[in-house]
Request: fold
Amino acid sequence: MTPEEILKLPSMPAAAPSYPLGPYRFINREYLIITYETDPVALRAAVPEPLVPNEENLVLYEWILMPDSSGFGDYTESGIVIPCTFNGEPINYTAQMYLDDEPPISAGREIWGFPKKYALPKLTVNSDTLTGTLYYAGQLVAMGTMTYKWKESPGGIEAMAKGMTKTSCNLKIIPDVDGSPKICQLVAYNLENITVKGSWVGPARLELIPHVNAPVADLPIKRIVGGKHYVGDLTLPHGRVLFDYIKDAQG
Reply:
């Protein structure tokens, strides 16, 4: 391969790249998000500065079913998102993510810094209940349930689509060849071309089980606020650097 050919490759390995060039389109992406209140000390420890956790000490535990994802295929994801502020502006910080498909694990970590690890999440409808489960290394570490399509969400699909445009960010850490930090950044992104097809709220419950390699229970549940369930199409564009810990911290 020539240097020119190498520079055109979208990802590793060169013989069969793990994922194509983006942006990436998702069709019929389905969410279950359970909001709960947690311990403020544990929350502050989970959020990297200069982000500031929300004053209500809220955590969003989510399952996302992605049956039609360009370049990635069909997979399910589960994890923790924390509402924060950055320089006074609202932003969502993704703290943990677990999924069952290699291409989005590689792309998520390498491009945006999503904190992705391999596990087995599921999101299913069982009779009158929307149910999310997460298994890591053969053990159940999270289970969430919500009443199925209990009530249309306030503001309907328009309000939900607007809410999905909120800025999100990840802590991207990639070491150099000697193990020292090469990339250490907060990477921000905003979803685009959003079409919400349905959006509901309702009662929900969540159980988190301690596990050393999937520490979702490190943010303990004090009070369940409620559940959201919505389905839509969207585009995930490339990200942008919000804060550089190597450059900005030295400055």
